[in-house]
Task: structure prediction
Amino acid sequence: MLRLTKKADYSLIALKHFALCLRRDRQAVSAKEVADSCGIPLPILSKLLQKLGKSGFLSSEYGTNGGYRLARDPSQISALEVIRAIDGPIVLANCFTEGAFCGHSGRCTVKKPLRKIHEGILKLLDSVSIEDMLEEAENEPGSALPASLVTLSGSAAHPLTK
Result:
């Protein structure tokens, strides 16, 4: 099953929180405030914020009003970038990784369709920005998924029911 790790999930939640703070003209935000607001354990969040800072998503400010802020516009930060920065490459099947060997690859009948699915997932994740996540939450509080994901899940469900 393809699933986000908790670290990637927490990172996306935190970046969305920073985008909301930016929209409200807040300057730097402390890790404790993000942890309390988002329900993320502070020790885990602190490590993730450091990693997000080293990856160029956040900048840190020191002093009494210090904390973190987005280093880039939230519309220029894709979910794919964040997930890769936290978890590394996204792999749907081992046959897509370099140097991986599969004894079944010579007669595999699903490698090409799986590659299309893999590329579709990557393209979709790349098309959803932190700004999109923020907009979706503000515009449709009852919907947890961006419209592009709802469309994908609706179209993906149909072939499986045949």
The first strand starts at residue 58 and ends at 61.
